Amino acid sequence: MDRGLSTLSEPLIDISAYILVSIVIIDTTLSISLLTDFQKYVVFIDEGFQNYVAVIVKLVYGKQDSCYYKVIQRIMVFKFPRRKNRLVKQLREKRFVELTKDYFESDVVKQMDKYIHHGTTTTLQHCENVAWISYLVNKKLKLNANEKELIGVAMLHDLFLYDWHDGEPCRKTHGFDHPEIACNNAIKHFGIPEKQQQAILSHMWPLNITKIPKSRVALIICMVDKYCALMETIRLNKRFGLRY
């Protein structure tokens, strides 16, 4: 494959890379959207079943004494799927806050909130969006990536600390350069290990074609980063599950 690519012209290679990136973004967006719709459908079926059982209970025990009937009434109004989902959401939110707490207390991380990244979303908000969606994807798809490493990479993957829209000539290669800048800052301020360094460096793959994701954490961040960037750019953040 490498020999075949070497025979192509630079413009053709660039076009091919853009096409591949577009396919990855579209595929990721559709996959996450379908997962969301599927979850809603399962909840809908489950609630329908609970309501059907409640009707049967009412018919069977409708003529019991008033005290017992009140107990049955309590059972009938108990919407287990909704309560379960609310409880799960609260537990996930609590766990997510615990995992991100140290980063939000860091002065260097707070600086990211000064710079707009995509649309009206700041760099810090983008990193939190990536962290949240990565956390949910890892949970819901049971990918078993290390949560602490996953959140760490997500919160630091764009720690470049400048406005890449400022028109400076050096910003023209921002897409290629910023993973290394962010990685160096993450090493300097947080002393991250090699595995997390690799995940930050590879989050712009396949734009940086040689920086291939080599771990579950790296692959999740690579895919989710593109999904969040797209949603933020077209400003559909909240509608598609992002935090900002």
From TrEMBL:
Keywords from the UniProt entry: Hydrolase, Membrane, Transmembrane, Transmembrane helix
A single GO molecular function term of this UniProt record: hydrolase activity
Residues annotated as transmembrane: 15-35
Organism this protein belongs to: Acetivibrio straminisolvens JCM 21531
SUPFAM superfamilies: HD-domain/PDEase-like (SSF109604)
Keyword Transmembrane helix belongs to the record: yes
Full protein name: Metal dependent phosphohydrolase
Stored CDD domains: HDc
Domain of life, source organism: Bacteria
Gene3D superfamilies the UniProt entry points to: Hypothetical protein af1432
